[in-house]
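[09:14] KT: can someone run the structure on this one? pasting the chain below
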Amino acid sequence: MRLFIAIDLPENVKEYLRKLQASLPSANMSRARDFHLTLKFLGECGEALRGKVEEELKQIHFQPFEAELGEIGAFGGKNPSAVWVGLKIPQELYKIVCDIETGLNQLGFPPAGVFVPHITLARVKFVKDPETFIEQLKGIKIESMKFKVAKFYLFESKLSSSGAEHIKLAEFGR
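[09:31] RB: done, structure tokens below
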């Protein structure tokens, strides 16, 4: 099974992100159907490893905190590959990510590198004029939406021809 660890978003934030997708500049892209903040992608794992991952994640404790939507951006530089909304996040989130990395490193998962908190809006397949596309993205203003984070989840990602389906397997936190 293909696993990842993420924070789920409240429905009002997801609804706002769906509306935001409609304002994206024209390009050949696939829009995200589900929104979450990925903390760590694990990849393919068997049942035994999944159980060990869950045991490690149970050891992570944190106080609930508030996160806020940030600005819109794109990965890929001059050839955008993904459009996302960043987050203004307090230090608590970075501690959770560090604790996840430390615990799962003991199970053989390599470190993920620099954590860039973001919510993917779309995967870009092709942009005719990347410079104009990026300039148009910069013109999109993001509402200041805050939301409480009290839990994170272990998800399974099932891939199909119609896209990925994300299934919550376990929850951690308060």
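[09:33] KT: thanks! The mean pLDDT is 92.
[09:34] RB: yep, looked fine to me
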